[in-house]
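Sample pair:
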Amino acid sequence: MHLPHRSSAVLSQHDMLSQPWRQWGDGTGFNTGYTQGVANATSDRLASQPLMTLFPSRLVTPELSSIVISAKDHRPDYVVISYTWGRWMHSLRDNDTPFVGGYWKIPGNQLFTREDLNKAIQKISAGSHSWVDVFCIPQNDADPLKDDEIKKQSAIFRSAHKAAVWLGTGGEEALAEVCSWQPEIVYMISPSLLGFPDIVTYKYLGWPAASHKETQRRLRIIAGFSDRVPWASSLWTLQEAALRPDAIFYTKRGDPILHSDSGNPITVKHLNNTMRAIRDELMDVMSYTYGQSVLDHPDLCGLTEDDISLVNRAIDEVNIVSLHNLGSMNAGELLLASKRRTASDPRDRVYGIMGAIGVTMKVVYKDIDPDLVMNNFLVKLHNELPVEIQAFHRVNVYQPDSRRWLLDEDARLLTLLRQRKAPAVTVFSAINASNHLVVDRVEYLSDNGRAELKGCLLSERAVLASDRCGFSHFVPVTSYVKGSLNYREPATLCLMLDNISQKASLAVVSLGTVSGLEHMGWAMAYMLVAIPSTPEYLNHAPISTRKCIRLGILVTATMLFFTTMLERTFEIL
């Protein structure tokens, strides 16, 4: 069925320059496409690793035996195969099967047989060696090789000469159809993938019943996409998709899944682009009425209550799949996206995504609290990639009950921020029982320091992505958003900071240097905090009273000089 074309709104260069926070990408959709020129920091970090760490310890031969690869061996080309299976593993291990060269057994599965797996591996690898997790990673949690191989996931996937996604758990028909909606040819005006008419078309031509029905059918497919394609809901496969967007999809039989128009094999990158186009179209639908939600005026575009429900479900599903902006995510966004995916073991919330982020830690499954694993990982992220894990701000007065210092679904993303170099001295030390982030030192802003900061803001040598909920602890933010006052304007921010400094001490926590924004003049990043006490009192105050409230993330053209180091333990709420 022919579907109409739709145009998409683009933020003008004037808007970008007059609204500096938009240069970072702020979660409004502007950053889509804009970040293609930004270097992938994770790839850069991984590329610097020694060759010895970039190769798997085991491979599967064309005859399906598992062989050990040592440093002295010839290192053959291999195909890395991504698939999902853990959720359907038999609880009783009676169906586990042995394999040649292994000292563990391959777990039995409810959705595919061992024969299905063997045939698919041989067909996909086509005479080459392959890497398949159950053949190459010991399935005993206490085996130290399991730790080593999981820590090397990023290197294993990146070093493969070819990557594949095997849909052994189903979904090949849905994936082929959805990806075939997106043409491989680039058009000046993007085609509609879902078939919504624009307001003008609907006003004069209506919405033919057949077209309306087709749109509803497509919405239902998207709303249930991860159920139809279980690979798209797994946490581990999110990491694998991030590491190998060139991976080709294969059917359960091991045949490549082809685009219905071009006949070319469908890749992860094509699915990413399709999901991005679908999300853009869904968001356009929700803003059909020039700034007013379609929920208020569904009559303007002919949407029924069922249509609106389907649109909302489809938006939720696209966010769960989290492939629409996978190629432009920083570390914080990737961690947030991983929370939407399914993991069989809660500790995999760390182990199943750390390879894509590029910050790894020891893998321990036995007798360790999943919350402790996550807390240790968050502390390590704050010390190695503090810019990226803090690349967000909150535009609403609403605040979460705990961990306000951590990116969540209600925060606005600063997509373009990337870490160049973390501070030489690690300052983040723990997450305590109150869920506060513990920092061992902050830089207090003296009178000269506050004057320097305000001067930077007013001269646009600094930009503050402010946390409205943090500001609301000290000043009535609503008074700054009435009439001509805008709490994002530099002059208004300076007034608010003056107001806060009468009630609390302003300080910053250095987050290191920023990468990818040099052409815009940005070099340094800080977390701006308010401490409801004087520095003199804090020198002698007990740790329990040293609280900080996050006011936002500050990006500057130069280092701040007029600061005084307070080497005391503080808790960021």
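The longest helix spans residues 268-286.
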